[in-house]
Specification:
The complex is a heterodimer.
Chain A: H1 4-15, E1 25-32, H2 37-50, E2 54-60, E3 69-77, E4 92-95, H3 98-103, E5 114-118, H4 144-150, E6 155-157, H5 159-166, H6 172-180, H7 188-198, H8 204-219, H9 235-238, E7 243-248, H10 258-262, E8 268-270, E9 276-278, H11 289-293, E10 299-304
Chain B: H1 30-43, E1 51-55, H2 59-62, E2 70-73, H3 79-89, E3 94-100, H4 101-106, H5 109-118, E4 122-128, E5 131-132, E6 138-139, H6 163-170, E7 174-179, H7 183-195, E8 199-205, H8 209-215, H9 221-227, E9 253-257, H10 263-282
Parallel strand pairs in B: 1-2, 1-3, 3-4, 4-8, 7-8
Antiparallel strand pairs in B: 5-6, 7-9
Helix pairs in contact in B: 1-7, 5-6
Classes of the chains: A alpha/beta, B alpha/beta.
Bound molecules: thiamine diphosphate, iron/sulfur cluster (SF4) (3 copies) and magnesium ion.
Thiamine diphosphate binds at residues 57-60, 76, 100-103, 107, 127, 129, 131-135, 140, 208 of chain B.
Chain lengths: 309, 283
C-alpha cells in the first residue's frame, strides 16, 4: 500500500534513526462529545511548548455534538512530521469512556504503551438497536480484568465517580490528566499551572484536587480494579424471550408495499408475484407495524411473551 | 398469562372471510380505518350481535359489508337517517355509521347537521379521502385547493369544509380526528367515541391511492400514508414537515367533548310524559 500517510511514517522512521532520541511521543486522547477531550490535548500541547518541544495535534470533533465520538492525536518530540499517530504506535491511549477506549486500543503500542481509561460507560443510542424485548445493547461487554490479561499495566479508574465525589463530574478529565502526568516526564507543577488557566475560574480548586487525586491514584494504584459502572440488566429482562411468528395470507395481499417500506427492521419484501414475504424471521421484533398498516388484513402477528416475574 | 397470545385481537374473527380479498385498491386507507374500528369494538368487548353497522354508498360505505355483524348498506348520503330510525327503535343496539366525505358532507350534509343537532347516542365514522373514490374521482366538499379531480380539471377552487368544525357547530357532543397512519391512536379515539353517550363524530384521514393519489401525483401507497403526518398541526403532532401534503393543516385527537342531553333518552321521557297527560285528560 502506498498511501501518503504510510510514506510519511516511513520518512519519519528514517529520520529517527537508532541512537537518536528524536522519536516522537504519541498520546491519543479519546472520548465522547462534552467530556473534555480537546481540553486535555490542549493542556498537553501547551506543556510541550513550554518545554520547547515541537508538538502537533489533530482532532476530529465536528460530528460529535454531545455524546458523539471525539478523538485527538497529540505528538511531540524534537522533531515531529506527521500529525496523526499510526496504529500500534501510541505511547499512551487516554480514554474518557470505557468502550471508546477499547475501540481505539489497536492504536496502542502493544509492548510499551500505557492504557489509561475511565471506567465510566456511556451507552450511545446506536448501541440500543436491538429492539427485541430483553435484547442486549450492542455495547462492548469486555471487563477490566479481561483487558488486564492482555495489558497488565492498564490504569483503569473510576475518574467520573471520583470527580463527582469532589463535587463536579466535569472534572473527570482532570483526574485522568493527573494519571497521565505519571506516564509523561513533565514535572507536576507545570500541569497544575496550565490546568488552572484552562478551566473556568470558579472550578480551579476542584480541578487542582482532581489532578492530585488522579496522580496519586496512578502512582499507588489500588490492587482491586474498579467495577464497570453499568449494572447488568435485571434478571427478568435478561431471560425475557419472545417468540414471534408472522402469518401471511397470500391470497389477500395486494402488494401495496406499505408493510415492506414501514417495517422498522426491513425484514419484509415483495416476491416475484408481488406478494409479501418475510426475509429474516429472526429480525422481526414483533412491533406489529405491518399488521396495523396492512389495508388488506393479510398479516397476522402471533407473539407470546412470558409474563415477567 | 404465560405463553398466551400477546394481543388476542385477530381481525379475521370479525370478518365475512368468504368475501375476501376485499374490493379495495392496493394501499387504500379505508381498510386500515376498518381495522382500527374493529379493534376498538374488540377491546370494548362489544358483541357483534349487539352491533349495527349502517353505511352509505362509496368505497367507505362498502367496507361495512365485510364485517360479520348486523349491517345495513343503505342509499347514498342517508346512513345517518337510517341509523337514527334504527337507534330510536332499538336503543339497545350499538349503532355505528360508516360514511365517506362525499356521502356524509355532500349528498348527506343535511342528515349530518341534524344528526349532530339531535345528539342521539351513536358513532359516525367519516372516512375522508378528499374525493368521490367509488365513482372514479369527482371533487368532494373536502378536496384540497388546487387538487385535480375529474370534475376539477384545472384544480379545485372551492373553499374546503372542515368536517369537525361543522359537526361541532351543529351540536355533536364528541368530535375527533385521526390519521390512519396512527392506527393505535385511531383505535383509542374510536374507543372514546363508542363509549361516549351522545352523537360522536370521528373524521379519519384516509388515502384514495389509486384515483386521487395517482391523479395528483401524490406518490405510492407508502408515501401517501407517511405524508399524512405533514398535514397535521405541529401542536398536535410533533414534527411538522415543510411541504404539507394536505395544505389544510389538520388538528388531531379529541377536538370537542361536551355534555348535552342524549336525544333518545329525552325523547322517550317526553313521549311518556305526554302520553300520561293525554291519558289523564281522556279519563
Ligand atoms: C343518489 C346517488 N347519487 C349518486 C350516486 C353515485 N355515487 C356513488 S358513490 C358516490 C360518492 C362516494 O364518495 P365518498 O362518500 O367520498 O366515498 P369514497 O368512495 O370516496 O370512499 C357517488 C356520488 C349514488 N350511488 N346515488
Ligand atoms: S412485526 Fe412486522 S413491521 Fe414489525 S418487525 Fe416484524 S415484520 Fe417488521
Ligand atoms: S401491507 Fe398488506 S397488502 Fe400491502 S404489501 Fe403488505 S401484506 Fe401486502
Ligand atoms: S377508488 Fe380510492 S377510495 Fe376507492 S378503493 Fe380505490 S383507493 Fe380506495
Ligand atoms: Mg371520499
Amino acid at each position: 500500500m502506498n498511501s501518503p500517510l504510510q510514506s510519511t511514517v516511513v520518512a519519519e522512521r528514517r529520520h529517527s534513526a537508532p541512537g537518536e532520541s528524536t522519536a516522537a511521543t504519541n498520546v491519543l486522547v479519546v472520548g465522547v462529545g462534552g467530556q473534555g477531550v480537546i481540553m486535555i490535548s490542549k493542556v498537553i500541547a501547551l506543556l510541550c511548548q513550554q518545554h520547547r518541544l515541537q508538538v502537533k495535534q489533530s482532532e476530529v470533533h465536528g460530528m460529535a455534538k454531545r455524546g458523539g465520538v471525539v478523538f485527538s492525536h497529540v505528538r511531540f518530540g524534537e522533531q515531529v512530521y506527521s500529525p496523526t499517530i499510526p496504529a500500534g504506535e501510541a505511547d499512551v491511549v487516554l480514554a474518557l469512556e470505557w468502550a471508546e477506549g477499547l475501540r481505539w486500543l489497536k492504536y496502542l503500542n502493544p509492548e510499551t504503551g500505557t492504557f489509561i481509561v475511565d471506567t465510566q460507560q456511556i451507552v450511545p443510542p446506536f448501541a440500543c438497536r436491538n429492539r427485541k424485548p430483553g435484547g442486549l445493547p450492542g455495547y462492548d461487554q469486555l471487563t477490566v480484568d479481561q483487558i488486564r490479561t492482555r495489558l497488565p499495566g492498564i490504569l483503569a479508574l473510576d475518574a467520573s465517580g471520583a470527580a463527582t465525589e469532589l463535587g463536579n463530574p466535569k472534572a473527570a478529565n482532570t483526574v485522568l490528566l493527573g494519571a497521565l502526568s505519571t506516564a509523561l516526564e513533565f514535572p507536576a507543577e507545570g500541569w497544575q499551572e496550565l490546568i488552572a488557566g484552562a478551566v473556568p475560574a470558579r472550578t480551579v480548586e476542584i480541578n487542582r484536587q482532581a489532578f492530585n487525586m488522579g496522580r496519586e491514584w496512578a502512582l499507588h494504584p489500588p490492587t482491586e480494579a474498579p467495577r464497570l459502572d453499568k449494572s447488568p440488566p435485571p434478571a427478568s429482562v435478561q431471560t425475557l424471550e419472545r417468540s414471534v411468528h408472522l402469518e401471511i395470507t397470500d391470497a389477500w395481499c395486494k402488494g401495496c408495499d406499505i408493510c415492506v417500506k414501514t417495517c422498522p427492521e426491513r425484514c419484509l419484501v415483495l416476491n416475484a408475484h408481488q406478494v409479501v414475504e418475510i426475509t429474516d424471521p429472526g429480525a422481526c421484533t414483533g412491533c406489529r407495524m405491518c399488521e396495523w398498516l396492512c389495508p388488506d388484513f393479510a398479516i397476522r402477528l402471533h407473539s407470546s411473551i412470558p409474563e415477567p416475574e | 398469562m404465560q405463553g398466551t397470545e400477546h394481543s388476542d385481537f385477530d381481525i379475521r374473527d370479525y370478518l365475512r372471510t368468504d368475501l375476501f380479498p376485499h374490493f379495495m385498491c392496493p394501499g387504500c386507507g379505508h381498510g386500515i380505518a376498518l381495522r382500527a374500528l374493529l379493534w376498538a369494538l374488540h377491546e370494548l368487548d362489544i358483541s357483534m350481535n349487539n352491533l349495527a353497522l349502517v353505511s352509505g354508498i362509496g368505497c367507505s360505505g362498502r367496507t361495512a359489508a365485510y364485517v360479520d355483524t348486523n349491517t345495513m348498506h343503505v342509499t347514498h348520503g342517508r346512513p345517518l337517517a337510517f341509523a337514527t330510525g334504527l337507534k330510536l327503535a332499538r336503543p339497545d343496539l350499538e349503532v355505528v355509521v360508516i360514511t365517506g366525505d362525499g356521502d356524509c358532507l355532500a349528498i348527506g350534509g343535511n342528515h349530518l347537521i341534524h344528526a349532530c343537532r339531535r345528539n342521539l347516542d351513536m358513532t359516525c365514522v367519516m372516512l375522508n379521502n378528499e374525493v368521490y373514490g367509488m365513482t372514479g374521482g369527482q371533487v368532494s366538499p373536502t378536496t384540497s385547493n388546487d387538487r385535480f379531480t375529474t370534475t376539477t380539471p384545472l384544480g379545485n377552487h372551492e373553499p374546503v369544509f372542515d368536517a369537525c368544525e361543522l359537526a361541532t357547530a351543529a351540536g355533536a357532543s364528541l368530535v375527533g380526528r385521526e390519521i390512519t397512519l396512527q392506527t393505535p391512536s385511531l383505535k383509542d379515539l374510536f374507543k372514546t367515541a363508542l363509549s361516549h353517550r351522545g352523537f360522536s363524530f370521528v373524521e379519519v384521514i384516509s388515502d384514495c391511492t389509486e384515483i386521487y393519489g395517482r391523479k395528483n401525483d401524490l406518490g405510492n401507497s407508502t408515501e401517501m400514508i407517511l405524508k399524512q403526518k405533514s398535514g397535521i398541526r405541529p401542536e398536535s403532532y410533533g414534527n411538522a414537515v415543510e411541504h404539507p401534503f394536505r395544505p389544510g393543516d389538520w388538528k388531531t385527537g379529541i377536538l370537542t367533548r361536551v355534555e348535552r342531553p342524549e336525544y333518545g333518552d329525552s325523547y322517550r321521557q317526553h313521549i311518556a310524559t305526554k302520553q300520561r297527560a293525554v291519558k289523564t285528560v281522556t279519563k
